[in-house]
Design a protein that fits this description.
Elements lengths: L10 H25 L1 H7 L7 H9 L6 H41 L1 H19 L2 H6 L7 H19 L2 H12 L2 H33 L2 H22 L12 H8 L25 H20 L3 H9 L7 H29 L2 H23 L5 H17 L1 H12 L3 H29 L2 H18 L18
Helix pairs in contact: 1-8, 1-9, 1-10, 4-5, 4-7, 4-8, 4-18, 5-7, 5-8, 5-10, 8-17, 8-18, 9-10, 9-14, 9-17, 12-18, 12-19, 14-15, 14-16, 15-16, 15-17, 15-19, 17-18, 18-19
Amino acid sequence: MNPSASRPTCFRFGALAILCSLAFLTYLDRICIMRVQGEIERDLGFAELTPADEQSLRERALQSDSQARAKLGNDRATERMSWVFAAFVAGYVLFEVPGGWLGDRWGARAVIFRIVLCWSFFTAATGGVKGITAFFSAKPGPGQWLMVLVAVRFLFGVCEAGAYPNIARALGRWFPFRERATAQSFIWLSSRLGGAFAPTIIGGLMLLGGGWQRAFWLLGLLGLLWAAWFFSWFRDRPEDKPQVNGAERELIRAGEAAAGSIYDDASAPAFRWVSLISPNVLALCLASFCVSFCFYFYITFLPKYLKEQFHVDYAQSQFISGLPLLLGGFACLAGGFLSDYAVRKVGSKRWGRSLIPIAGWTAAGLCAFAVSQRNSVGAVIALIVVAFAFQDLGVPSMWSLPTDIGGRFAGTLGGWMNSAGAVGGMLSPLVAAKLSTALGWNAAFVVFGAVYLLGALAWLRVDAGKPIPQSNNRSP
């Protein structure tokens, strides 16, 4: 007998690698706009004052005050960009559950392929805002450009929705429970690396293409090439990949291929939609809302905060803006290993999954409070990076839960959880913009600190050992 015949192959790591490349691409495409917001504000005239702004200046006898006009113009640009950022998340939240549900019905491969094709189109369209507007208006201006950019980013969010629920579903099918959080940690390491390098990559593409518009076109082309590669290699089930031997298939199932589990290949049972409002799932959704609310500041207004608070311009902040995501990626890696280790050590799925985010998000909240009390740019950057790292310790645990408790409906549950997160992400830039103009940026960090602590409290109620109830009725 050949000893290698009973040795598991390692094709699950190939599946992980291609899904990691997807995670890198998602964050590259969604975060690159953060780096070019200054160029977008300038080229699309977002600092142009409205008639209401002019009236406000006249009422205060400041119509000739250059500093007052500049301050109001900057506030107007911040407000307009906040709607651009929020538009992406609005589209994202609306289609997260449908995207995850389709993955449960059609398989992750087919849905991810369509997702990447569509979002790549609207990535390219982001760079074509002026050309698109010209089809609808003979003399377009900042108002029309803003409307078109908001619409394009909304549709970009619609198209990218469902990516991570389907990644969670695919990983659940390719990895056993005891390796799941570790696999998720590599996914989130990759996503954070995509975000960390996004400012530098988009800066390089701007130099290569001759402007931010062509940089978005190049990113769109990259997405189309990736989609073709993914569809040709990836399969939904290890059983559909001839190179995966029987030993690896058994290792993946790990004795947990019961009816209703993600390994159950029988026809899908009807989903009990009421399970989405069970206390366990709602607690998970609250945790997702809280972490996304805080996270979206880092990928939207961090460069603007550094510019306004410490006079660090956008070009100089490329590395600084990516630093939290870079170190956060390695925190994700550590968090996944720690979560799987805690499950084995504590002997409890519930506390094994919950302890790491409870500790991490509590520490992140304390760091956010400290940011509001510091005036040194070095101290603030250090605290922001540390807060982000503590936040990301809990992310692999959170994204293991849809498979842990959702079983065959990991995509649907992941979409529901991430919808709650997307609501937090949509509100984050709007709240941060309002707070910064009304009370200053330090007030925003007080709010972020409180939200981190609320998220840590939510984890006290989350139970990874309590699957959602499933119907016995099978869909046709």
